[in-house]
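Example S7 (structure tokens).
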């Protein structure tokens, strides 16, 4: 069991082990700004050790397991994670500052990823291809070997689940570098993985700083595939490092996702979803619905109702389970404040704002949610991912303009379309350049089964769903001549 007072170690070869440096990193509770734990500061030597362990597993005990056996291990892991759901949710809530019910939902999704990929492990088929007479040609899906996983701090459990779950199901052995800001739930989950039957080396977790452990992982020639979720700049650095040894990369780099509200939408159903899509996890969500585009005929009504809902929102400590917790760090709060200062300086209208509860600890990283109205598309607030509880609203006159505004973004991760008109639903869904489009809903409740990923600066490759298994495998074609 992890204890708050413990100095957490690395997890390599199913054993807790100190970092070669002997150094540690302080873990801060965003709700009160206080240090409550320490993690090991892993570096290049530890990554090298973890890659070695993973390689041995990939050609040894893990590599020789049948797909059905791998599935059974994942299934047991899913059950152990579900049983430890409350403990994992508490760890993640304290580590990230997210309200408890959100952390609980993440723990549930975490178990569900392992369950989903447990069932998928023995259903990854190749094909046979008609060819010349005298040949039988077949394709088989093989694991890459050792996969690297660089995880961000916003949803550690969910992103670990979708990425490591799929990679293991496909037969890879994994080296994980969680974010330095939030990794305690993952260290605990790794222990549960060993308990579920993962052989030593199949899963290794090396905590540490991005430019040290993260960079060492991306550069390591023993890594056969890297899956990265995080910011576009770091994603570029990871892809460049991986290119040094021609290592394939999957990048999920966030977004500035539009929610498009037509005047004929069912507003009662739309409004709570619009608000939730930006305040969930304090706006620190890759797929946050951070731009709302509103048809001019409904502008006054939608804006007034959104403003009313924003005014009722309360931010406070994760343990109070309010609408919002704190941001992850002082650095992240400052980033959000810089954007809000720019909005003020450029005369943008603050149409609605929530509050911070009076008893919130003064050193916590709180920022009330803000609704900004009539934000021009050229504004940095419309174009850039803020990664905080800031919703920008912009009006449009017709479908063509809605589409142009939605696509006027360097990103392309997710979009929401709200209208009762069936033909328009389809025209919009086809016209929007994103990896996912939701019609009259947003996010489909998490959607473990739904392929997820972006276009443009949101990245490439797909995680989640069955599709992810293709990314974690390589295709071999075998042509057999028998005439
Ligand atoms: P943020 O700046 O919001 O922390 P990042 O995209 O930098 O977001 O972080 C996502 C993940 O990438 C974290 O695990 C972080 O430690 C890691 N990381 C940061 N810098 C690097 C780097 N140069 N190489 C590899 N990983 C990195």
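Recovered sequence:
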């Amino acid at each position: 069991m992890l204890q708050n007072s413990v100095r957490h170690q690395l997890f390599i070869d199913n054993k807790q082990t100190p970092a070669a440096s002997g150094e540690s990193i302080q873990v801060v509770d965003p709700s009160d700004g206080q240090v409550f734990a320490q993690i090991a500061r892993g570096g290049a030597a530890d990554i090298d050790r973890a890659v070695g362990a993973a390689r041995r597993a990939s050609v040894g005990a893990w590599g020789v397991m049948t797909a059905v056996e791998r599935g059974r291990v994942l299934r047991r892991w899913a059950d152990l994670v579900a049983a430890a759901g409350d403990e994992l949710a508490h760890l993640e809530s304290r580590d990230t500052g997210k309200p408890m019910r959100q952390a609980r939902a993440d723990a549930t999704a975490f178990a569900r990823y392992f369950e989903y990929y447990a069932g998928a492990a023995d259903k990854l088929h190749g094909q046979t291809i008609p060819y010349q007479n005298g040949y039988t040609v077949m394709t088989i899906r093989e694991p890459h070997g050792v996969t690297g996983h660089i995880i961000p701090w916003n949803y550690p459990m969910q992103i670990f689940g979708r990425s490591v779950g799929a990679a293991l199901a496909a037969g890879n052995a994994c080296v994980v570098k969680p974010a330095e800001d939030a990794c305690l739930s993952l260290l605990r989950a790794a222990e549960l993985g060993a308990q579920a039957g993962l052989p030593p080396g199949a899963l290794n977790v090396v905590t540490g700083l991005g430019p040290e452990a993260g960079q060492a992982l991306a550069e390591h020639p023993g890594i056969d595939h890297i899956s990265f979720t995080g910011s576009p700049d770091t994603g570029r650095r990871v892809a460049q490092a991986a290119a040094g040894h021609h290592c394939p990369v999957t990048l999920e780099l966030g977004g500035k996702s539009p929610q498009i509200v037509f005047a004929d939408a069912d507003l009662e159903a739309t409004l709570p979803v619009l608000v939730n899509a930006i305040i969930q996890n304090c706006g620190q969500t890759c797929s946050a619905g951070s731009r709302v585009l509103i048809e001019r005929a409904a502008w006054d009504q939608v804006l007034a109702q959104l403003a009313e809902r924003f005014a009722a929102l309360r931010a406070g400590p994760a343990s109070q389970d309010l609408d919002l917790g704190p941001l992850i760090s002082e650095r992240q709060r400052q980033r959000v404040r810089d954007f809000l200062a720019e909005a003020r300086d450029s005369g943008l209208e603050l149409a609605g704002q929530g509050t911070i509860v009076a008893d919130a600890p003064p050193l916590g990283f709180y920022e009330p949610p803000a609704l900004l109205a009539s934000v021009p598309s050229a504004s940095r607030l419309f174009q850039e991912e803020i990664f905080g509880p800031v919703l920008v609203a912009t009006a449009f006159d017709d479908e063509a303009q809605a589409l142009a505004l939605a696509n006027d973004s360097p990103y392309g991760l997710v979009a929401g379309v709200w209208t009762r008109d069936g033909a328009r639903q389809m025209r919009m869904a086809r016209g929007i350049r994103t990896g996912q489009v939701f019609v009259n809903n947003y996010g489909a409740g998490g959607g473990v089964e739904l392929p997820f990923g972006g276009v443009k600066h949101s990245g490439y490759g797909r995680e989640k769903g069955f599709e992810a298994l293709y990314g974690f495998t390589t295709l071999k074609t075998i042509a057999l001549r028998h005439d």
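Notes on this example. The first strand starts at residue 7 and ends at 8.
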